[in-house]
Amino acid sequence: MPAAAPTLHIAAALIEDASGRLLLVRKRDTTAFMQAGGKIEPHESPADALSRELFEELGCRPRHLEPLGEFNAPAANEPGHGLRAHLFRVELDGPPQAAAEIAELRWVSPVDAATLPLAPLTRDIVLPRAGAPAA
């Protein structure tokens, strides 16, 4: 029986603007667009990890975090790994700017997002939830 794929534990942000566009990021030296966020350190809660990652990657902090659940997907940039992602709908406290390992960020409609190379989590979990009303 094959061994289970190693699992990365991450926190990820579903960020939309007032016109319903979704914020996607692409990390340096990769092709897949995905949510901002990253790995949860052993001492962090998912919300704390996401707050730290958003500040590092986008230069802003969450004004509001709404938990959307935990989801599993294949990792986009680490072959043979899976993800367990804590997904949050996020409202930022300012305009995001690409920083740290982020090479590019784009605001795209859910329809336009589907034309980009997307991480499995973004394609299969996030896009179906984009545009949904906040709880």
Automatic annotation (TrEMBL):
<dbReference type="InterPro" id="IPR000086">
    <property type="entry name" value="NUDIX_hydrolase_dom"/>
</dbReference>
<feature type="domain" description="Nudix hydrolase">
    <location>
        <begin position="5"/>
        <end position="132"/>
    </location>
</feature>
<dbReference type="Pfam" id="PF00293">
    <property type="entry name" value="NUDIX"/>
</dbReference>
<protein>
    <submittedName>
        <fullName>NUDIX family hydrolase</fullName>
        <ecNumber>3.6.-.-</ecNumber>
    </submittedName>
</protein>
<dbReference type="GO" id="GO:0016787">
    <property type="term" value="F:hydrolase activity"/>
</dbReference>
<dbReference type="InterPro" id="IPR015797">
    <property type="entry name" value="NUDIX_hydrolase-like_dom_sf"/>
</dbReference>
<keyword id="KW-0378">Hydrolase</keyword>
<dbReference type="InterPro" id="IPR020084">
    <property type="entry name" value="NUDIX_hydrolase_CS"/>
</dbReference>
